[in-house]
Amino acid sequence: TLYFAAVETTQSLLGTSLYYLTKHPGWAGIVSEEYASFGADEALSLNKTPQIRDFLSETLRMNAPVPATYRYTVKDVVIGDYRIPKGSMIYMSFQSMHRDRKIWGETADNYDPDRFLEDTNGELSRSLIPFGSGIRVCIGKYLALMEAAIFIGEITTQLNLSMPADQDLPLGYASGTLRVKDELKLQISPK
Q: How far apart are CA 19 and CA 27, in angstroms?
């Protein structure tokens, strides 16, 4: 389960990360600089690399690998004015929550990793749940995040990335995850 989970979520995250690195080249420089500041004998940590963490968080907010999930109620539940009987299936859209203007503001549809730097009370971080949360959090979450951090760090320190201006992010579903489908046309050159 761990291997499957980490492969699926990481594949999705890497594809969308490459897209956002090319569409926002300033962030490729920021990621590269922060990653390069680590010595060969230092362990990479997302707590020690806030800009890489924020880049990945915003990438996941815009395109969560698993955009929704469902749960069954084990007892009658009241949420606001709604009574939900025991045994009901509740569909939860992470993607809708990650674009909710009540949480993310008027720029909810814009790609902006800096929004997490300004998240001093942790409200945005708590509202970002691309891997689920609580006891049902994806078992591959931390493996996927560390693999992605190393991947984008290595890519941005060694290569220049670009793509045609008219390239969109071609997303589709496979094995229950949202990921880049077809082709993502990247132009790559050594630094």
A: 11
